[in-house]
What does this fold into?
Amino acid sequence: MKKPEVLVPAGTPEKLRIAIDYGADAVYIGGEHLGLRSRASNFTLSDMQAGVAYAHERHAKVYLAANIVCHENDLNGVVDYLTAVRDSGVDALIVSDPAIISAVLTKVPRLPVHLSTQASAVNYEAVNFWAKHGLERIVLGRETSQQEIKEIKAHTDVEIEAFIQGAMCISYSGRCVMSNYMNNRDANRGGCAQNCRFLYNLMDADGNSLNGKDLFTMSAVDMSLIPEIGEMISTGVDSLKIEGRMKTIHYVSTVANVYRNAVDTYCADPDNFQVNPSWIEELAKISQRRMSFGFFNGKPTKNDELFSHKKPELGYEFIGEVKGQETGRIIIQERNNFSEGDELEFYGPHFFHYFTKVVDLRDEDGNKIDRANHAMMICSIKCDQVLPQETMIRKKKVARVTV
Ligand code: SF4
It folds into this structure.
């Protein structure tokens, strides 16, 4: 059985390194042009070169998303830019617009092209159409069921990539213009304002609210197929994609860790595979939204729609990164406040977990402190546990008591 690739989003060079350290086989990034995340800290050409070198040294791949819907001026300089992208060593380009596909296939040789999910390929005829034109991989629309993925795999030789985790659009991806109308931001050129997640009210003709104070969204529940990971791998899919280039290093490290562990566990012994409940618990620590299976088991139901505005549950917060260990102490770079006596969870690559209380908290100069409360401050706690490289720290949020 072919082990599918674990493909993780990397919105910044730091996230690229973390994704790979935590087990990603491949990452996808955005460049300064042609990507769908105009507000992300996208990669410059020199970032790309450094990121590719880091990835290739660790046998991982880097794909660049260049998947906007192109209008006339977007194509200026596209061949020069994509030639420079290819020369940076990027392993493939993720594209949806035929204008860019044609430009790459005819004028930028040796740069493999993957069809983006934005092109909504959800049947094998569409997949084979693109394969015939020279594309090496097709990223299926998120609206594809398990049965359809099997059918597609049975009728094509081209590589197939399918989404396994992340946000869903309430329209077919790449076909929503709510943000263009409401915010003058082009959803399909990197500017989606996520209008489907705004809070809405229903009014009668006189402006009276028909739903009182119960505001609602028009969004879809996020997808997480970890409980169905065995079924997904058994479709024969080549790559498992995780959504979220705008997400934090807490998210990137956690999803890479969970899916690496899950895929390795399944592939080591598919016949006796069981879902590990701690994978589900881990993923719940990075999301305050409900999860569903999206379209994987057929048509979504009302449970897959995030209709009512729900108060986020108390989750976990990211505390910081371990920067070193010396003489029974752990050196921490803080990202969010924590205090003497707090319960911390340390987690690292290969699904490492360790829990301990904060004891003898000190600042960088060795002075005893009660609280680490300056962003990025260096501090240390007493602890003898040996931690793996790249260990991160989180803690459970506690409810604020108001009087
Ligand atoms: S507004 Fe919502 S449905 Fe539309 S593109 Fe943005 S996230 Fe997707």
